[in-house]
């Protein structure tokens, strides 16, 4: 066998070739290949990446190698930072890059390294997510951003870079269900809406948590009037149970909304 190549057998008895390399005492698998020659080329590519210091994270030509972009990032990070990570992550001092593709690179705080070392970043329908305990969890939910939040309306990026997912860069404008932030003549207020047969206006409030409570109140009223729908509700951590109960009683909802619910029962 050529260097770095060994023969393996599938469950059906057919043969294939695997490639591996050892560097700094670490045995690294490079993948499976259909021919001995391609497996050997993977070994040669990996050897060059690991030993040539002129190949860097900034100038590497991914298309020049038979290895996947993920494996190339893993090798470069191991060479430069002496840490083997199974996902395509490259470490810097206070943050790291996650290479979803060679062109699509996300920046995270170093505090998130353990999580993304163990959870693979995926993308579907424009949404980033990970599989966590059998569930698809959106990445933005780690910042308190709701699953169906709209960029620019419910959250925004401080430096306008949507690839920068460091905590300080994400501004969560509307962290609550059924709440929309609005600005008129420089004055910020919050509208509450509930979705029954379309969005229905509940009220306008000067305080964000008041709008969130008003939405919860609208949900309770809908259930009382026979609306059979599993509405999400808001959990407001900054208020004690007694403060929440007092606010719940005092915060009004639209009279038109109450009439709408009464009309639904007729």
CA(first)-CA(last) distance? 82 Å
Largest sheet: 3 strands, antiparallel
Query: Radius of gyration, rounded?
Result: 26 Å
How many beta-strand segments?
14
Task: Return the string of H and E elements.
Answer: EEEHHEEEHEEEEEEEEHHH
Helical residue percent? 25-40%
Give the overall silhouette: elongated
Mean pLDDT: 94
Give the spatial strand order of the biggest sheet: 1-2-3
Supply the key terms:
27% helix, three-stranded antiparallel beta sheet, 6 helices, alpha+beta, single chain
Explain what this protein looks like in three dimensions:
With 266 residues, this protein is an alpha+beta fold. It has 6 helices and 14 strands. It has helices at 36-51, 69-81, 113-118, 208-224, 241-250, 255-264, and strands at 5-9, 15-23, 26-33, 89-91, 95-99, 105-109, 122-124, 127-132, 135-138, 155-157, 170-172, 179-184, 187-196, 198-205. The chain has a 3-stranded antiparallel sheet, covered by helices on one side. A hairpin with a 2-residue loop joins β7 and β8 (127-132). α1 packs parallel to α2. The longest helix has 17 residues, at 208-224. The termini are far apart. The model has no long low-confidence stretch (mean pLDDT 94).
């Amino acid at each position: 066998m050529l260097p770095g190549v060994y023969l393996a057998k599938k469950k059906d008895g057919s043969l294939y070739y695997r490639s591996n390399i050892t560097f700094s005492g670490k045995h690294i698998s490079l993948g499976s290949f259909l021919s001995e020659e391609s497996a050997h080329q993977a070994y040669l590519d990996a050897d060059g990446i690991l030993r040539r210091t002129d190949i860097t994270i900034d100038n590497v030509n991914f298309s020049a190698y038979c290895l996947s972009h993920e494996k190339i990032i893993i090798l470069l990070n191991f060479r430069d930072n002496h840490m083997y990570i199974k996902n395509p992550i490259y470490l810097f001092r206070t943050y790291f890059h996650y290479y979803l593709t060679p062109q699509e690179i996300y920046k995270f705080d170093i505090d998130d390294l353990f999580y993304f070392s163990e959870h693979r970043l995926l993308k579907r329908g424009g949404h980033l997510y990970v599989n966590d305990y059998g569930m698809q969890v959106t990445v933005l939910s780690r910042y308190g951003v709701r699953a169906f939040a709209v960029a620019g309306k419910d959250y925004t990026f401080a430096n306008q870079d949507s690839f920068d997912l460091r905590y300080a860069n994400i501004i969560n404008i509307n962290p609550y269900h059924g709440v929309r932030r609005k600005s008129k003549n420089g004055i910020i207020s919050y509208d509450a809406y509930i979705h029954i047969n379309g969005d229905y206006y509940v009220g306008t409030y000067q305080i964000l948590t008041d709008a969130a409570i008003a939405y919860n109140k609208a949900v309770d009223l809908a259930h009382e009037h026979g609306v059979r729908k599993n509405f999400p509700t808001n959990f407001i951590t900054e208020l004690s149970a007694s403060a929440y109960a007092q606010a719940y009683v005092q915060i009004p909802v639209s009279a038109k909304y109450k009439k709408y619910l009464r009309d639904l029962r007729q």
